[in-house]
Design goal:
By secondary structure, the protein is α/β, with parallel strands linked by helices. It is about 35% helix and about 10% strand.
Length: about 240
């Protein structure tokens, strides 16, 4: 069979609520975000495992309330001569600090800065949403006053994806690369893949690549041949 080619699709990520798959695993997070601006002291931490949907919900919230977004784990321009955060300009505004638990990987949000950002929340109409993989009580904090602030934060948790969320991740992944797999592939994959959005997207990428290389349809037979299911060779 002649080799098939698909043009790479680079649609930008969509962070709106309508494209988010709600389920019991993320109900607490949805209710917590929808309670804004009535968060205790104007602060909330949104926590959960990688790929569970924290960024999706946090960016949707930031868009809806016109929040300033700070990516705490990303290197900034400071090393190239850029300016640090202007805390005075952020006072009274909604703020989103992504990956606050991994802030040591970046250079914008150190312990002292995070302490001030938390203290600013709830003042002059300001609010603060922090995201992280672990609950704030487990975040490292060398500043004692920051430790007490983190321990007191209201927490909204997202759990590992259930079947509803995992199927939605798979469907969006296949749509992004222009694949319409056989309908019975979804329950087949969900029964075998880890409860993880990154694992689901990695499976989509592997099937996409194999389909192009081998000129085959994306179905259970291809999944069995390409994906490592830990010795599972039963297609039923």
């Amino acid at each position: 069979m002649p080799r098939q080619f698909r043009l790479p699709l680079t649609a930008p990520p969509c962070w709106d609520r309508e494209s988010f798959a709600s389920s019991p695993t993320n109900l607490q997070a949805l209710e917590g975000l929808d309670a804004w601006p009535a968060w205790p002291d104007g602060r909330m931490a949104l926590v959960g495992p990688a790929g569970a949907g924290k960024t999706h919900l946090a960016r949707d919230w930031a868009r809806r309330v016109s929040a300033v977004t700070i990516e705490a784990a990303s290197p900034s321009t400071l090393k190239g001569g850029g300016a640090p955060l202007d805390l005075a300009s952020l006072r009274g505004r909604p703020l989103l600090v992504e990956d606050a638990d991994r802030r040591s990987e970046g250079d914008l949000v150190d312990d002292e800065t995070l302490f001030h950002l938390i203290n600013m929340a709830g003042v002059d109409g300001g609010s603060l949403l922090l995201t992280g993989r672990l609950a704030p009580v487990a975040w490292e904090a060398a500043v004692p006053d920051l430790r007490s602030r983190l321990n007191a934060l209201t927490v909204a948790r997202i759990d590992e994806p259930d079947d509803v969320v995992l199927e939605a991740v798979l469907r969006r992944g296949f749509e992004a690369v222009g694949i319409r797999p056989a309908t019975d592939l979804y329950p087949y994959l969900m029964a075998r893949l880890p409860r993880s959005a990154p694992a689901a997207l990695a499976a989509v990428a592997s099937l996409d690549e194999a389909s192009i290389e081998q000129g085959r349809e994306v179905n259970k037979a291809l999944a069995l041949a390409v994906l490592d299911f830990g010795g599972d060779d039963d297609e039923d």
